[in-house]
Amino acid sequence: MASNKKNQNKRSNVLVVTEAILIAYVCYIAHFIMLQLGHTLPVELEALAVNIGVMTIVILLCSLSVGLYETKLRETFRGIIRRIFVSVGLSYFVVEIVLEALFSNMKIEGYFLPASLCMVIIVLVLFRYFTNRLGLLGLGRVSIVVLGAGERASIIERRMRRDVDRIGFDLLGFIPVPGDNREEGIRNEKLIHLNIEQNLQQFVAENDIEEVIIACDQRRGTLPIDVLFDCRLRGVEVTDLLDFMERETGQIVVNLMYPSWVIYSNGFQTQNYLRDALDYSINAFLATLVLFFAWPFMLLTALIIYLDDGHRTKTSVFYKQERVGLNGKLFKIVKFRSMRPDAEKDGAKWASVNDNRVTRIGQFIRKYRIDELPQLWNVFKGEMSFIGPRPERPQFVEQLVREIPYYNQRHNVKPGLAGWAQLNYPYGASIEDSMEKLKFDLYYVKHQSLLLDMLILIRTVEVVLFGKGR
């Protein structure tokens, strides 16, 4: 255990030194580029060294303050990106204050500081990506063992079969526990048979285990509480299966949820008061910005739909449909019509891949999400946000609430034009699909923040530009 701790500290120290060198070098390159572009003035070498030194130290301290050098950091890569943005953003203000207060005569004016920090963000994100992805410096991968080999534990085997699903950890195996449902349990993974009361602590120490995942089917009377308590005191993480799956997959496994986990887990509350206070203002601003650039495409789309079949069928180019919004309140969503006028003559139906009710124009505008643009009106009315779970039809919601546990909890936030579920599970045309999308929707409800919203917006642009939508 001591050697494990020593190795962790060594990796952390190497990471700090490596990133310090990268930050200093990037700041030097940024000054050279700004100098060539004429956006800053030549300075003495001493002044340049002071500016770069202050920026490097401040960024390292801010990164340390947000946990980027924590040896026990258990974070997704998305979470690491958010921490980098926060640390570098905070550094901007600290560097300005330090340079103005202590080195005002040496401060480099112009675009040097913002350009340097923008480049630092890009380089640090890329550096963390490759170190995590390739396992460089021993970062991004932890040694774990799963306590349990039954039905609950088997979700790891089913959902995380590929190597790409296990980038963040090395799984040594599954330890069967009395009470596990072995008939529905682990099939193809390595099983580790040992007496958990007598030998688990020794096994953890000898194999440098950094995290134990609790995934047994029956907890009462089967868990070695004293052993796990001792492991925790020695720095070994003890993580519930639900928390582990949430962290590694970006979803909440709804069918494994239990009330006490919801009650005691972090999240499911909005702690960002600025985000709450400016919710409508931010969404209205974004809607205005999108409308400013998109109105020619919207006008052209409306004209094409009218010429395609609107003038012949005397049907509107827009399609209004009742949806379920915040706290279950109904509202009328507005979209460009992408289906035939008689698409639902036999009642509400799930949309499907290659749906024969979709028009020729409808296939194109659905692929590039153009049919969603009129929903900017719903954003202006305050019925929708830019980011949130996609609103569903009340006919389907009634059925889904009966058949899917916790489905109603997705209505605790405003529905959105784009959502976490749409990025990770892009098509939903059945109850089974709705269950899968709910896992991502609840993850968003639990972790909603400005930074997560920004990440979803950025990735949604990729979906629109490359036509990855439905």
Automatic annotation (TrEMBL):
| Topological relation to the membrane, as annotated | Multi-pass membrane protein
GO CC entries: membrane
- The domain of life for this entry's organism is Bacteria
Keyword ATP-binding attributed: no
Domain Bacterial sugar transferase intervals: 283-465
Query: Which stretches are transmembrane?
Result: 12-35, 47-68, 80-99, 111-131, 284-307
Q: Where in the cell is it found?
A: Membrane
The record's InterPro entries line, in alphabetical order, gives: Bact_transf (IPR003362), EPS_sugar_tfrase (IPR017475), Sugar_tfrase_EpsB_2 (IPR017464)
User: What are the entry keywords?
Assistant: Membrane, Transferase, Transmembrane, Transmembrane helix
According to the UniProt entry, its GO molecular function terms are: phosphotransferase activity, for other substituted phosphate groups
Family of the protein in this entry? Belongs to the bacterial sugar transferase family.
Q: What is the name of the protein in this document?
A: TIGR03013 family PEP-CTERM/XrtA system glycosyltransferase
Q: Which organism is it from?
A: Alteromonas sediminis
